[in-house]
Request: fold
Amino acid sequence: MIKVAFVIAWLTLLLSSVAAIFWYSDWKYQLPTPVPKNYTAVTMGTKIDLKSKLPNMDDKAVFLHFYNPECPCSRFNKSHFQSLVREYGKDTHFVIVVLSDKIYSQEDIQEKIGLKIPVIFDQSLATQCGVYSTPQAAIIDNNRQLYYRGNYNSSRYCTAEKTAYAKIALDGLLKSQALPVMTAQALKSYGCMMPVCKN
Reply:
């Protein structure tokens, strides 16, 4: 009888601990990333210099995927990002911009993402686009102006179709529409601080 009570108490404690860790992790994910002290806001419509960084791009739109391999949030949206590349890859240039204090090769990143698309390690693009966390999306229009900068989704695993912000923005751009009205959650940064993942 004492053995059974001990096992039940131990299992209860174990399950409670797992639930507490999951709850804490989920709660932390829902907090916005702190804005850096030296952050300069970048407005939509700002001209983005891609020529020096991506010289072989034609006049298609460019989708910059700001990514940190150590960031759990970046890993959560991997399959969603892959689906965007599959769906829009013919009409849009997709580029991974690595924001990390660790050294990776282009092949390392392509393997982690599961896609053979261009990878660059120039963190100045994040400053140009007003990005200070990962994962973030920045969509540059044909005139090389910032059309959208923000989150992929309100759902941690990018499963909520109604809040697929980056996809909604890309759809709008490819249909030559003005940027749809986005909620604060779309435009406020959530995820890991760059370049060091602290989440």
